[in-house]
Amino acid sequence: MPTCFAAVETENASKYLMQLCKHFAHKVDVDYDSARARVEFPPGRCMMTAEGSTLSFYCRSGEDRGIAVMQHILSDHLTRFAWREDITFDWREQFPEPVPDAVRLGFDAA
């Protein structure tokens, strides 16, 4: 199953996680708190974590096109929300090890 991962450095990691989730909740199923989130995009699931100054995105889809769609949605929205910052994404195809328990359990619940 195709996956992707990105970690973004920002002093507002938790704030942006919650802002993204509140925004996405208008259209898709979202479950979140200040440190972790699960977003059910049409092409797949995205798990997010906010730890210190790092906002991480873990995405899984049934097809490569779904990964590209989620990357675009997440990059576009966070860049607009964090317009005062120089946000950069370095998308990777694999999740780094170890995968946080909240992320692993979020995907296991699929």
Word description of this protein:
The protein is an alpha+beta fold and about 110 residues long. Helix content is about 35%, strand content about 30%. The chain is built from three helices and five strands; from the N terminus they run βαββββαα. A five-stranded antiparallel beta sheet has the order 1-5-4-3-2, sandwiched between helices.
Briefly, what is this?
The protein is α+β, with helices and mostly antiparallel strands. Helices cover 35% and strands 30% of the residues.
SSE order and pairing:
Blueprint: E1 3-9, H1 13-24, E2 29-32, E3 36-41, E4 44-51, E5 54-61, H2 64-81, H3 101-108
Antiparallel strand pairs: 1-5, 2-3, 3-4, 4-5
Q: Which spans have pLDDT < 50 for at least 5 consecutive residues?
A: none
Strand proportion, as a percent range, falls in: 25-35%
Number of helices: 3
* Helicity range: 25-40%
Q: Gap between N and C termini, in Å?
A: 13 Å
The radius of gyration is 13 Å
Mean pLDDT: 94
Largest sheet: 5 strands, antiparallel
Order of helices and strands: EHEEEEHH
Widest sheet: strand order? 1-5-4-3-2
Q: What structural category arises from helix and sheet content?
A: alpha+beta
Overall spatial form = globular
| Count of DSSP strands | 5
